[in-house]
Amino acid sequence: MLYRTAGQFKTSYRADQALFPIKQDAFLLGIVLLCAWVIFPLTASEFAFQTLLTPILIYALAALGLNILTGYAGQLSLGTGAFMGVGAYACYKMITLMPWMNPVVAILLSGLFSAGVGVMFGIPSLRIKGFYLAIATLAAQFFLVWLFEKWAWLYNYNASGAIQVPNLDIFGLYVAGPQASSITQYYLVLAIVCVLTYLAINLTRGNLGRTWKATRDMDIAAELIGINLMKSKLTAFAISSYIVGVAGALFVFMWRGAAEPNLFDIPLSFRVLFIAIIGGLGSILGNYLGAILIVGLPVVLNTVPSALGIHVESALLEHLNIMIVGSLIIFFLIIEPHGLNALWRLIREKLIIWPFPH
Amino acid sequence: MELLNKIFVAPFADMVSAPDFLMQVLWEGLVSGVLYALIALGFVLIYRSSRIFNFAQGIMVVFAALTLVGLHEMGVPAWISVALTLGVMFGLAVTVERVVLRPLVGQPDIILFMATIGITLFLIGFGEIIFGGENKQMITADLGIPTGDVVLEPFGGLLILQHIDITAVVVAGLLVLGLLLFLNRTRMGRAIRALGDDHQAALSVGISLQTVWVLVWFIAGIIALVTGIAWGSRAGVSFALEVIAYKALPVLMLGGLESITGAIIGGLMIGMLEKLFEIYWGGPLLGGNTESWFAYVLALIVLLFRPQGLFGEKIIERV
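ok -> structure tokens follow
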């Protein structure tokens, strides 16, 4: 009923291939964007900005980057956390070396460093495949985190070994550091995420995206039809790492405010990987659904016992959280191995033909 | 010039001038190498029989060791707690097979890999709730494992071998031997290898997927317990131990995901080389703690020349 397609006729192939083949999809996206740009900022509390809205967007962006590499180009990577770290440290160095720099420009440029490092660690993918490659990306993970710790130049030789975000402003409005307000940061993150998502959608639907998919589905066959595997894999690494790097810079500058090397350790990589897989590999929407689940779940779980009036110790609660997240990952994999995105597609199909079963 | 000297000359001069220290370093490396090899062995077994990259192997080590110590703390005699722990590992194998693996048969590799990470998280949370997060002492003495050390004096120097380490090496050797015999000489072992070669063909000649999976996970659990005891008596038992799982991954890369020989040789190589590198190059030149990545970089370099690892099966692809 809500998704009735009656009367929406397609008269050209172009219309058939359009981004929104059904009007209601565009309408739905409009509602979501309206919520994100107007309704949430008007209604959300400081707590909601800090624990839900901003982190969901940042994690979704990181997962989007990973998804381009793993979901579209088929190269499994376990080093996302470290590439986020490269983005964050590059941004920090640029800001401290050139304090006059516009923070947004710095954040967008920091992705380039991460892209460079990503391509370097992506070179083995030309020879190595599957799980071997996944373990090879762990080399990047461990090596880079070690480097963040030992290379004192990266954190300006300060005693704590951590990076601290200074107060940064654009035309007098603080966007990062202790003086920035959550809502400014949220809008900034939202804007960057929207732009990058738009670009990612177009990329994955275009020539490059089809090249990636061919590489993923069968690389030898792709090579036989004239796809340059090296170019395909390395562009995937570059673009994926760029997005991940920007997400890393946002992660530290717009949300955490400070970072130690071990923040970028392997749990972060896995978190992003969970989001990408639970959301659905090879989809854009899935990253957002996955991020909402993985970031939102612990917050919800934390509030459940106090809402029910049961007192649970925080350590126990934390361990229960880990346990429940673990079981839910397995649960979601069992009910829909292709992720929440596939679940939504199924629901949408049912809605279109509702109330008839076929 | 100074730098070249530090890289190419000084370390070797140090090695020659203090051969006893070199031997000590190699021995330490060998012992950790044996443990890496054991964990890698658990991975290889499960990978061969089901093509599942079992990320939970590292946490199974911790979980087995924690169960053993936890049971003993409740007043169960040492050897009975070993038996009970084996029972728990069997229960874990059955549960994992029934709840996680069976519904996911035939899914892409990455989905199964993710599921094992889910198992990892579950076991971390579960273990912390039941046994607590603090570091525990392994019940070395109660199990009758000799403590103390042997002091040798090669080249007029000093070489200290811990009894625990010697025991670990011997037991690991026996375990590997037993495993190889089991895989190569028994019906069940052949069934495991058959499943690894081709699921459907194995099923069609009447090999039960479920039984073999439970068995393989149980064997991985036994290996985990042995590793847990050996590593736990060196460093104590806590969830910090899970980092050794990350050490086993480059071993797999180096040795090849399917190869038992590869896991053993890879483990010993990585154990010794990373100690050597840390002591003679990493510490003086790079500020130390290079053990966290050295194994990966080494494995990566080897893989660039042999993409299937040193002993892995060469993958022949057809379109």
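The radius of gyration of chain B is 21 Å.
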